[in-house]
Amino acid sequence: MCRLPKLASDGLVTLGLWLLLLARAWAQPSTARHPLEPVLARLDVARQALQRVKGYECRFIKRERIHGQLGPHEYMHLKIRHEPFSVYLRALGPERRRGDEAIYVEGANDGLVVAHTGGLRDRIAGTVRLEPTHPRLMRGNLYPITEIGIRNLVLKQIRLYEYEVQFAECDVKMYSNVSVDRRATDCIEVIHPRPRRNFRYHVARLFFDREWLVPIRFEGYAWPSQGAPPLVEEYTYTQIVWNPGLGAADFDSKNPRYHFRD
């Protein structure tokens, strides 16, 4: 079983202490603290845990609503290195995306993404080098490759809730022992009952792995015009191997295990 590096006792919050702090935070009267404060505390624990992670390899599953249309689940083999921030991904499905590969390394390749498509499309186009936000790379994606990864998810949610904590109209619920790919998680659900320009989601759910203390799944929903809230975006990190010893070759398009070609 792969394990996240243990949190040290030198100022970092252990799981037992965190659970105690969380229980106390939720027990406070609603007038004493904003409902998002315990959520921010848990996200900060995840941020600290990820400081001990150099990189990881996993299967990444995403689903996004683009221009009002909810796309299919997309499956990718993903490698992440934190310093310098580096990404390698290979599309596993659906069929139309299978074989697509992309590499981004902060501070390298003139800041460009090195990418190619699979199959016949690759034989026509070959390997391209494009800005991360180039329309060709953003097609079918809500966010650029530079925003992928668990650490980016944590930092993004911290920024979001540090902004939203100044507003009311917020309800927070927690569900324990929710299974995500056979991993036990705690699901924290943040609800904004009414659509306001200050709020990004009607409902947002973060699923924190109970052993690793980091979120391995996120769901975001918009306000419904009628019926159930429509899914906006959904990300899941499964089969995670922490600190597998990723090196420069893992983020090099000349790697013989990859299929880039000029």
Please tag this protein with its features:
disordered N terminus; globular; 12 strands; twelve-stranded antiparallel beta sheet; 262 residues; 2 domains; single chain; alpha+beta
Would you spell out the secondary-structure blueprint of this structure?
Elements: H1 15-27, H2 37-50, E1 55-66, E2 69-70, E3 74-81, E4 86-93, E5 101-105, E6 113-116, H3 119-125, E7 128-130, H4 135-138, H5 150-164, E8 171-180, E9 183-191, E10 203-209, E11 215-221, E12 231-242
Antiparallel strand pairs: 1-2, 1-3, 1-12, 3-4, 4-5, 5-6, 6-7, 8-9, 9-10, 10-11, 11-12
Helix pairs in contact: 1-2, 2-5
What does this structure look like?
By secondary structure, the chain is α+β, with helices and mostly antiparallel strands. It has 2 domains: 35-52 and 150-238, no CATH class; 55-148 and 244-251, no CATH class. Helices cover 20% and strands 33% of the residues. It contains 5 helices and 12 strands. Strands 1, 2, 3, 4, 5, 6, 7, 8, 9, 10, 11 and 12 form a 12-stranded antiparallel sheet that branches. The longest helix has 15 residues, at 150-164. Residues 1-14 have low confidence and may be disordered.
